[in-house]
Amino acid sequence: MAEDREPSHPMTGSGQPANASAAEQQKKSRAGRNLPAAIGVGATLGALVIATLVIEPRGWVVVVAAALTLAIWELFKRLRQQGFHLPLVPLIVGAPLTTLSALPYGVQGVLTGFAITAAVSMVWRLLHNGLDGKPENYVRDAAITLFVATWVILFGGIGALLVLTEQGAGPIWVLMIAVVCSDIGGYTAGVLFGKHPMVPQISPKKSWEGFAGSMIAGIIGSVITVSVFLDESPLLGILVGAALVVSGTLGDLIESQFKRDLGIKDMGTLLPGHGGLMDRLDSLLISAVVVWGIVAVLGYQMTV
């Protein structure tokens, strides 16, 4: 989700020289996005996900592994710029290996991979300065390392597991379509009607009107996907949609506060019109855990 602050520029107050600012503002929406770029990137990512789920659903695990690896690198760079020292090697190796271990070992593989990654990361950071060196800011850096490992590797690994149930790609369709509908509904309603800030100290541009738009669109999307892909009751679709809109919103807020603490606008520049990869994964990571909980309650069996 796009953040709410722009670094100011002495000539325009908008972060750009006057001539560049005027042209750029023509392309930006009221919500601050470069809308043509955002639509193009979103369509490309959507096509990749759809093609994967249609052609070879288990390829989803590989797509997730690649995305989490890039996300770890993105977070490492951002945190390094702010003076935090994360143990890159165990994190960037552990992210794909933990995710890919879902294919042969299922839940046990993901949990074991996460635990090993967390343990190695803690030791790696402890000995960052060698056996004779004095650790500096160890508790701070170890804590943020475990936060990142949980947020990205564990939650992402759970998202990869969703395709390995007896329902195949069904839970992934439910997750992705609900989050996309929520994002579109919230964006549209927020731009057109947004007047009442929802949590101004965390994300000033998020409004209650936008949240209502997210809720309506997310529930509509979930009713359709739960009925079509899971063959479950539309009433369950309403409940799932509401839960995923709430979880997606909370995921946005977590990332917004994370960026606010770091004093940055976007996690990176990998996705034009969106920011960094984590700016797109924020809603999905938390929501993947919710869908996993729903899968568990419904009693869907794992295929590995």
What does this structure look like?
The protein has 304 residues and is mainly alpha-helical. It has two domains: 109 residues, no CATH class; 138 residues, no CATH class. It has ten helices and two strands, in the order αααααααββααα. The longest helix is centred in the last third of the chain and has 29 residues.
Low-pLDDT ranges:
1-27
| Beta-strand percentage range | under 5%
Major β-sheet, in short?
2 strands, antiparallel
The overall pLDDT, averaged over residues, is 88
Termini separation comes to 34 Å
Specify Rg, calculated over alpha carbons: 20 Å
What is the number of strand segments?
2
The figure for the number of domains is 2
Number of helices: 10
- Give the structural class: mainly alpha
Widest sheet: strand ordering: 1-2
Q: Percent of residues in helical segments?
A: 55-70%
Spell the H/E element sequence. Answer: HHHHHHHEEHHH
The rough form would be described as globular
Outline the secondary-structure elements.
Layout: H1 18-27, H2 35-55, H3 59-81, H4 88-100, H5 102-126, H6 138-161, H7 170-193, E1 197-199, E2 203-207, H8 208-229, H9 234-262, H10 278-298
Antiparallel strand pairs: 1-2
What labels describe this entry?
single chain, 304 residues, mainly alpha, 2 domains, two-stranded antiparallel sheet, 2 strands, 70% helix, disordered N terminus
Quick structural overview:
It is found in: Cell membrane. The protein is about 70% helix and about 5% strand.
